Amino acid sequence: MLVLKFLLCALTSALAMKQHAPSGTMVDFTDAKVQGHLDALVRMAQSCVIKVRATPKDVRAYFTNSSPVSRSGQCFAACMLEQSDVVNHGKINRELLVHLASLVNGKNSRVVRKLNSVSRLCLDSIDGMSDRCQLASTYNDCLNENMIEFAFPLDIAEEAVRKMPFHLIQPNLPQEMRPANY
């Protein structure tokens, strides 16, 4: 979920999260620290949109934990994971992913415990892959499929998509698809 130089990306989509639960094991999206990480995730995604020329569908798929619908969607996932150093030179740094998730969720949280085992399992899904976009996207998809209960709430995913600078790479993008703040 999701995910990264800012940590949440460590969950980044690659891991993502859900509203705060009474047990304290889920992410509280009203927490200022979490909001800061979300803001950093959005900035990282904005950079990746430009680098890989991702479309709104690509970014929406990433933030809603859906499989990419295009090559640029796969490369968007790769960019996000590479910027967080979770993927480096075609290698997954599973320990960093778990560490980053623990910064937001706590070392002994349910999210981190599950991510620790799922991230290991997902390494098998990329065995033998050499294409960086396919490798990162497949790994991310595996995390998402196995961590579905921690998906970003849809309103947060849609807000992130609205903040993307699609107009910089697609000047003819219809007005309703352009971010409001650009």
TrEMBL record:
<feature type="signal peptide">
    <location>
        <begin position="1"/>
        <end position="16"/>
    </location>
</feature>
<protein>
    <submittedName>
        <fullName>Uncharacterized protein</fullName>
    </submittedName>
</protein>
<keyword id="KW-0732">Signal</keyword>
<dbReference type="InterPro" id="IPR036728">
    <property type="entry name" value="PBP_GOBP_sf"/>
</dbReference>
<dbReference type="InterPro" id="IPR006170">
    <property type="entry name" value="PBP/GOBP"/>
</dbReference>
<dbReference type="GO" id="GO:0005549">
    <property type="term" value="F:odorant binding"/>
</dbReference>
<dbReference type="Pfam" id="PF01395">
    <property type="entry name" value="PBP_GOBP"/>
</dbReference>
